[in-house]
Design a protein that fits this description.
Shape of chain B: globular
Strand order of the largest sheet of chain B: 2-1-5-3-4
Helix content of chain A: 25-40%
Oligomer: heterodimer
Structural class of chain A: alpha+beta
Radius of gyration of chain B: 16 Å
Largest interface: A-B, 55 and 55 residues
Number of strands of chain A: 33
Number of helices of chain B: 5
Low-confidence stretches of chain A: 762-771
Largest sheet of chain B: 5 strands, mixed
Mean pLDDT of chain B: 92
Strand content of chain B: 5-15%
Distance between the termini of chain A: 56 Å
Low-confidence stretches of chain B: 160-167
Shape of chain A: globular
Mean pLDDT of chain A: 96
Radius of gyration of chain A: 27 Å
Largest sheet of chain A: 7 strands, mixed
Amino acid sequence: MRREIPEVGHSVPRFDAQAKVTGVEKYAIDHYLENLLWAGAKRAGIPHGRIRGIDTSAAAALPGVVAVLTAKHVPGTNRQGIVHKDQPVLADEQVRHRGDPVALVLAENREVLKEAVRLIQVDLEPLPAVFDPEEALQPEAPLLHERGNLLLQATIKKGGGAEALAECDVVVEGEFRVPFQEHAFLETENGVAWQEADGRITLIASTQAPFRDRFEIGHALGLDPASLRVISPYLGGGFGGKDGATVQCLLALAALHAEGRPVKMWWEREESFLAGYKRHAARMIYRLGATADGTLQALHCRLYYDTGAYAHLGGEVMELGMEHAAGPYRVPHTLIEGWCVYTNNPIGGAMRGFGVCQAAFAVERMMDRLAAKLSLDPLALRLKNGLERGDKNGAGVTMVHSTGLMPCLETLRRHPLWTEREAWKQAAGLFKRRGVGLAAVWNAMGYGRGLPDSAIARVELTQEGKIRVFNGVSDMGQGNAAAFMQMAGEILCQEASRLELIQPDTDRTHPSGSSSAGRTTYTYGNALIQACRELKQKLLHRSTLLLMLDEERGLVLLPGRVKHLPTGREVTLEVLGRLFPESDRVCISQFVMPVAQDGLDTGKEFFIGFPHVFFSYAAHLACVEVDELTGKSDVKHYLAVTEGGRVINPQCFEQQVEGAVAQGLGYALSEQLLLRDGEVLNPNFTTYLLPTSMDLPDIAVLAVETIEPTGPFGMKGIGEVGVNASLPAVANAVRDAFGHGPSRSPLTVEHLLALLGEPSRQEVGPETTGKNDSD
Amino acid sequence: MKIRFSLNGSTTQVEVPADRRVVDLIREDLGLTGTKEGCGAGECGACTILVDGESRLSCLMLAAQLQGCSITTIEGLAPPEDGSLHAVQEAFIEHGAVQCGFCTPGMVLAAIDLLKRNPDPDREEIRRGLSGNLCRCTGYVKIVGAVAAAAAPGRNPEAPREKKESL
């Protein structure tokens, strides 16, 4: 471990890097315990059906099979779900998508497990199925859930709403579609669980929300949450897909039937595609109106989110999409309508960008259409309408915190990729078309109103004189744990080698919410800063006793010791650790994120999460070249300018932006779940195309540093905002290259060739009456 | 069957079914969990190991294929006793190439294999050389930078370089 104080603001190497790069770090998946059993699920295999019976006899008779469990073995409500408890642990009467688990097998090894799962006979009566949200809303549509196929319908209205469109000089219209996106974390859903002799169950899982997991398991299985211990080691990627129950309830159920033996469940890649959560597919219908000089006036949009078979966080995902539907712009009149609908598709859930990704594509394409119609420069149009502090956003929330969109746009405006774009485009080779596109995006931070976005930090001087941070929020790879160590090292003035980290463990660390919503470093960081300051004060005070000082003045905390500067006397942290009892060496502090105070008379349908008040901002620019003959696109240059308050660690900041852009470019260019009757046709990395190192450009990452006074050292979360911009930036670049642009994604070779084949239409011209404005 | 091979420098003998996947043998039987598995189908590269110095996908190999071979896993690169790291590992830490870290062991070993075949690659060659290893976190920018830095210590990994004749 490196001997340096991890100063905040500096690119110190990540605290977790060494253990990861040497293979020492133990992820959930790396726990193979003695006497291990393996658990696996038999899945429905059809999109919709009624369970007439399950014959488990052949599987149960197989040597090496320990138990075969079905819904009748589930002791509690058999319902899981973060907000809506609508998802069975094991399907009871009905299966609602092909990945629904109907039986759970415990076996001595994976070979027996596989065979036993194959031997289970499920007698299913197929029911008519529905795969399109709007069809699912029809009265005659097959019903997935008793209370109907509509998970949530909601409306956000501001000013005069849609009627204000009639007053606009120009109105552009558009309809946009985006498919399901796979998280594709490399460590698939997994965990290991066992029951102790006293009945308590311990679970080591790849999870983003260990504290909430206890309540989900408790509710579903009828167990006391206090009898459950969930440990969350570093995750091999999460991106939202491990926020909520994947293996947790199944594993706890398995542990109840394993006679104290540990049980491991590890979804294979194909199973992860089949049963894991996805970014929601969406259809978005937009009308955007402005005055002749390009001042935005009114927006009406209708958003349909396909949440698949179960709610997961579908309603909240749609909520965020709606809240961001007007883009980071001043729009005085809005009517934003949303429908989040059940279908027999795979389950839509949380994913980085959380509903915003979809809406950002629509609104940023609309901005370019409007710019073309008004013959305005697309950047000028955004600069004219961008949100500033004191403005109200599209949901009517007053921007009272750091609002750095304009500096992002200004930075982009001065960048050579923008100023020299015409020359770059003209240098296109034979049969190549070049275009430059931009997108301005934002992303809310935190849970929003209705539930506390809270964290509790504990920091301790150990008996050995080390500083131990008890982290309550999972680190799925984004580096929040490393940020915490940097903050602790900074405040307590200690080298990284003196810092120790305890990862989330419901028995050892304190409830600090989920690793999600761009909140982890902000909320836990604020709690930790307070705890560290208190610990520093405590250590200085206790040192006065040992150094026989009549006041604390002149005492400083230095690496490994407390020193009295006037006399030069000092005491080491080892001595302080040994001499004082635990309560003298521990500080615990709590922080709750501030919320929006606007009295809004809209969005009443949202249970929780509406509205938000903190946002991070970004302006991205993509330089795209398309081969006219093959349709192959190449993102030649990419610029991402991001505002997230102050930067704690520039290298980690770049990591988050580069990674978000990579996922965004995958979403833009190649990634889509291909579905036929709810079946995933591309359930592997040969056919679901993730960007490889050959597919992505070097990404220019610039930070616009503002200060968010409520944030730890002035920061805000920036993990999500970047993913929202890539698709609209690339799509707008294609429009720039072709003269007309795409209304759906991804921009595959086939899609681009089809677009190229369409007669070039002008975006400038009289307003059309059709659903989709020409472009 | 009985299989003898060299594992991270030590002679190892195991009694396993001949068709046991090497990734399971390494992770589950021998406890070296630094080797990861991301897809089980040879598509992601997380299970990369070095077999006689060349990168191989351990999820596609069967135990019997190890007979008489010399295997290096991520644990074998840096002997724990002296705390020193391989230059590629150092570069990954220094240049921020590690995020969730699940692709990292495979990526490091693939990079070592690449640098053995091409000690002075440009960024394009690095991108091509690592294209069999998926990373979902980084966008590859810092991984490419780390490998470039490991290839030529002291050189600015961000600096554009002349394309070579062979390209």
